[in-house]
Amino acid sequence: MANTIQTHMKNNTLPLVHFFLAFIMLLIGGTLGLLQGLNRGGVFELPASFNYYEVLTLHGILLILAFTTLFTNGYLYAAIRHTLGELSKTVKILAWSSLASFLIGSLLVVWMVLAGEATVMYTFYPPMQASPWFYIGLVFVVLCIWLAGLGVFISAFQWKRRNKGQHLPILAFFAVGIYTLVIFGSLGVTVEVLMLIPWAFGWTETINVMLSRTLFWSFGHTLVNVWYLVAISVWYTILPKIIGGRIFSDTLARLVVILIVILNVPGGFHHQIVDPAFSEGLKFMHVFMSLSIAFPSLMTAFAMFAVLERTGRKRGGRGLLGWLWVLPWGDVRFLTIMIAMISFIIGGAGGIAQTNNQLNQVVHNSLWVVGHFHITVGVTVVMTFFGLVYWLIPHLSGRVMTPFIHHLGMFQTATWTVGMALMALSMHAVGLFGAPRRTSYTTYGDSATALGWEPYLSFLATGGTLLFFGVILIVYIVFHLMFFAPKGDTPFMDSRVEDNAHPTPKWTENWGLWVIVAILIISMGYVVPLVDLIENAPPGSPPHRTW
Amino acid sequence: MKMHRFEEIWLIFGVAVLVISMAITGYQAFAQGMAPPSHKETIDPAQVENTAPFDNPGVYQTGENEYEVVMTLQAFSFEPSEITVPKGAEVTFIMTSKDVIHGVNAPHTNLNTMVVPGQVQRITQTFHDSDEFLLICNEYCGTGHQTMSATITVEE
Ligand SMILES: [Cu+2]
Description:
Bound molecules: copper (II) ion
Oligomer: heterodimer
Order of helices and strands of chain B: HEEEEEEEEEEE
Shape of chain B: elongated
Helix content of chain B: 10-25%
Strand content of chain B: 35-45%
Order of helices and strands of chain A: HHHHHHHHHHHHHHHHHHH
Structural class of chain A: mainly alpha
Distance between the termini of chain B: 65 Å
């Protein structure tokens, strides 16, 4: 038996190493989050060696960049190995180089932040100028994603060659869509960083601030939708199996992937609704382009309810809502994903609201946005990730989950849900009253307005404390399932399509076409503003260091 | 692609919500003049102090019940930092940054916009209540960011 474990661990080293590192990042990033929440709630003052803005920069980088990237790569490589077969040698080399590139990049980035050479926040807006090594670190992080994507594309291509005329398995189809989107999304920020590096070394004197900012946001929001696409790949392909059902419609799932990939990149512009340098007409067009992303989400909502209802009725649920109660609410693998999906209804509605001009102007740069972000990413995406842990990690390590870990998992889910609800809801509320984001504790000289925020901020700190316990629990669960749980076989939980499903049409496989459509849509959103920002640029900005 | 009947209804409903929300946004922006601040005027960010009107920041009356606030932003202050305007006046803020990107927000109002070096930003707000409003920077601009604030006093 000891040998089987060793073989399992050896065969699955690649995803296991990714998950191991991901949860270390979550532990450190979560601890920094606790410090921040307590400081912001006015509970305690950070020691002088801990600059609030350094802590915030690291919290963001470790959680939204490192944790999500490592988890996604680990999950998707486990998924393509399961659905497409053993990875070829080339693909393995690409995957390991991707991880190496990530480690080099994040080491540079974290080192520069800790050294106080890059207290520029994860948006690193110029003309605030970090050390050039910070930007070089970012290049390696982007390279990591490209290498991982290349590996997945090659795997898919090799599979198609071996299985002529067949559709790529749905989970692999998601993987191809996810990396296509992330590569499109990262093009803008790559160009930006390549302009920042010579400027940070002092080879060029000035920088075009609005151009950099716009290129950044073509990436910024796409990244969020990349995580979202990763999360819904779980909802479409894994959730049905967990509740004992089948995939509702293979075609619908593929269409949703395609739509998300082609519509997404210009969506980031809604972060610039109150910026100067763009015309009102252009901003209006971009509100429309941002809202169009809601369309595939609406289709997803339908598909999810369809799966839940069909399965619930199969399990004996009767009447209008009877199917809901017979779902396996006591199964942590289901409960986590269900809470993730419910939170997306709230997060999605908030997103649609704040994309519009008027509400955006009310909540722009306020804590509302942070609340929205924690609902969508912190619950919808991260809770989906947590839901995978209970079977994917034992599957990879050749072990089984014990009832104790299952109970602990239910408790973790409750802690996380209550913590996020407290924190995100108070952030939404206090954001409406104008409390700014990315600002350390202040009462602005005891102004009445700022003092009115205090009760909400203490709720925020309470939620943050609960979340910290949630982090400790999930990290314990992951390491237990990885190294200490009893030996055994845990199957990979991917679902089959309904028996009477319509055959999937051929056009879904036409990635060449989707790439062209995506380029056209990105051009529609960005050619005019980018040309305008370059042609009508003011004299560039010299560097500033304000920390 | 074959679709479920209920799915068609749901998608038509969803798209209708999006289209209606766009129609309302468009009507507000172009018919009611409630578009977001979108000024397209550039300035040399290193020469703000020598460029009119920013060589002379302050509050100016420009018409009956109309005021202009010419304002520069720099880490970590607004200039001017104490603004007084009469109740009900239409106040246009004309702003630029001398260094990095800042954000300007007066909580409890719709005054919320980005101020970017190299760009001049304009935003108009009417203050209907006599009160003291806080004006804060809401975009991280350096380690003193949390101290960056000003006050707007609206007098009877
Ligand atoms: Cu500022």
